């Protein structure tokens, strides 16, 4: 092994996904020298196997829904079919365009990209092939991959991960989706729009169980109306592959036959065999342990994104990357607050939220105030023919601490809700703001008007 000829760089970043490349970009912007090590393609899960390609599938599913619902809008149109090859070409072209842009951006900032599998070999060095790259600081950003359940074997033919589902060359006739988190609900939504028979199996009592119960219930109502079968509070017992597909059995005795089983029971950290333990990095079940400032137990090594315990979201990775680059460049930035992160599940309808659920707010603060505004009163929602609601959670005579929304396109509204909760705005302050008419954003305005004691389009 040869030492890096140029001597240590300021920052060695292991992993070029959302968190890793954001750290690299910000560090370079701050004048630091950066080596970014990536074994596959810059952009990581989010760009190649996650956020971006799944949202492209969801958008093509939305077009199917529009065609199928067109008569309600006075348009006669019939669906001729779904050309999966073309759907994938569209999805892949979106990814390719963004990948080209990202690669150019990283090049333009003078970041050295090293292709290959990096392995931590000391508190300040990572080996890639026969090269050793040394740095004053090392950032571990190797992300996550789909995980399964003990004894549940993924054959990538009939039992799939989300990676397999993204490249499936056909519309399945029927699917069992195991797990009703964001991945399960988004694929269930896409496949149902494409015409598949879909059953969701979830061990907990509700879809999207991390969300406020009111949002889960609205999504359940909408999914049932769309013809999706829900097996809630049902634990997976086993799967048998058959000539025609799979037979999934549940602990409650139910069996379900389907063409495919999608396993969407969470994602696990990518850390095995990468030298972390050997160098002495403190870990827990494969996750690298960090403090609020993303420091590991070794002073020169930090970690971020899906690799540490906590939320596995690309936008959190971006924020942590920026934060870390600034801290390692000697600044004093504010650590990323995991309490106030916007979350969106991009199903039809969408679920979006920020801050505390009603239950969590009660537990933390005792007495709270809530208000639910039904989208039935919102002009734009009626034009779009979407059902849903906005629920606010506020402290008595205090700020808004949680916002929960369900409905088509509500994901585009959550950034305003994030400003509200992060700035600890009081309902009366938000009620002063003018929301353009007719937009979905008025639902947020109306809900705050009501909570401030001056409801407008709401029955008292
Ligand atoms: P998840 O952890 O959010 O959901 C997995 C679900 O599977 C849970 O509700 C769990 O109760 C259920 N489950 C586990 N074992 C089970 C069993 N034996 N039987 C039945 N149900 C069982 O994981 P998911 O959806 O795979 O996503 C992984 C990560 O990626 C999450 O952190 C998620 O937030 C993130 N992600 C975010 C997206 C977004 O923001 N739109 C999109 C896709 C993923």
UniProtKB/TrEMBL annotation:
PROSITE patterns: PYRIDINE_REDOX_1. One of its GO terms (molecular function) is dihydrolipoyl dehydrogenase (NADH) activity. It is found in: Cytoplasm. Residues 341-447 form the Pyridine nucleotide-disulphide oxidoreductase dimerisation domain. The active site is a redox-active disulfide bond. Belongs to the class-I pyridine nucleotide-disulfide oxidoreductase family. It catalyses: N(6)-[(R)-dihydrolipoyl]-L-lysyl-[protein] + NAD(+) = N(6)-[(R)-lipoyl]-L-lysyl-[protein] + NADH + H(+). PANTHER family: DIHYDROLIPOYL DEHYDROGENASE, DISULFIDE OXIDOREDUCTASE. Its cofactor is FAD. The lineage of its organism: Bacteria, Bacillati, Actinomycetota, Actinomycetes, Frankiales. This is Dihydrolipoyl dehydrogenase. Keywords: Cytoplasm, Disulfide bond, FAD, Flavoprotein, NAD, Oxidoreductase, Redox-active center. It holds the Pfam family Pyr_redox_dim. Binds 1 FAD per subunit. Transmembrane segments: none annotated. It comes from Frankia umida. Coiled coil: none annotated. It comes from the Bacteria. The gene is lpdA. Its EC number is 1.8.1.4. It is an enzyme of class 1 (oxidoreductase). Residues 10-321 form the FAD/NAD(P)-binding domain.
């Amino acid at each position: 092994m040869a030492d890096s000829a140029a001597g240590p760089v300021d920052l060695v970043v292991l992993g070029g996904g959302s968190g890793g490349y954001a750290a690299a970009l910000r560090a370079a912007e701050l004048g630091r020298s950066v080596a970014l090590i990536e074994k596959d393609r810059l952009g990581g899960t989010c760009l190649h196997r996650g956020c971006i390609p799944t949202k492209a599938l969801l958008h093509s599913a939305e077009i199917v829904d529009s065609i199928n619902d067109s008569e309600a809008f006075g348009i006669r149109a019939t669906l001729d079919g779904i050309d999966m090859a073309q759907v994938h070409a569209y999805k892949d072209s979106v990814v390719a365009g963004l990948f080209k842009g990202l690669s150019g951006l990283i090049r333009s900032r003078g970041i050295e990209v090293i292709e290959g599998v990096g392995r931590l070999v000391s508190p300040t060095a990572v080996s890639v092939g026969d090269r050793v790259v040394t740095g004053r600081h090392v950032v571990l950003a190797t992300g996550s991959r789909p995980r399964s359940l003990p004894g549940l074997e993924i054959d990538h033919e009939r039992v799939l991960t989300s990676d397999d589902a993204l490249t499936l060359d056909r519309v399945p006739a029927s699917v069992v989706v195991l797990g009703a988190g964001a991945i399960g609900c988004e694929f269930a939504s896409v496949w149902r729009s494409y015409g598949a028979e879909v059953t969701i199996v979830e061990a907990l009592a509700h879809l999207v169980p991390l969300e406020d119960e009111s949002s889960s219930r609205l999504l359940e109502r909408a999914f049932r109306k769309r013809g999706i079968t829900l097996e809630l509070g049902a634990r997976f017992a086993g799967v048998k592959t058959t000539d025609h597909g799979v037979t999934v059995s549940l602990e409650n005795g139910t069996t379900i036959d389907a063409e495919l089983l999608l396993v969407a029971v969470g994602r696990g950290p990518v850390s095995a065999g990468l030298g972390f333990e050997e160098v002495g990095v403190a870990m827990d079940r494969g996750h690298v342990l960090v403090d609020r400032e993303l420091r590991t137990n070794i002073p020169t090594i930090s970690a971020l994104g899906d690799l540490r315990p906590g939320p596995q979201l690309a936008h959190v990775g971006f924020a942590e990357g920026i934060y870390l680059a600034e801290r390692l460049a000697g600044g004093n930035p504010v650590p990323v607050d995991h309490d106030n992160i916007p979350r969106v599940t991009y199903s039809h309808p969408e679920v979006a939220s920020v801050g505390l659920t009603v239950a969590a707010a009660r537990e933390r603060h005792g007495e709270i105030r809530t208000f639910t505004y039904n989208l039935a009163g919102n002009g734009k929602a009626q034009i779009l023919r979407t059902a849903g609601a906005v629920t606010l959670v506020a402290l008595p005579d205090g700020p808004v601490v949680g916002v929960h929304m369900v409905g088509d396109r509500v994901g585009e509204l959550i950034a305003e809700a994030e400003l509200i909760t992060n700035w600890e705005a009081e309902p009366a302050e938000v009620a002063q703001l003018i929301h353009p008419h007719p937009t979905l954003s008025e639902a947020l305005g109306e809900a705050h008007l009501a909570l401030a004691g001056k409801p407008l389009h709401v029955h008292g």
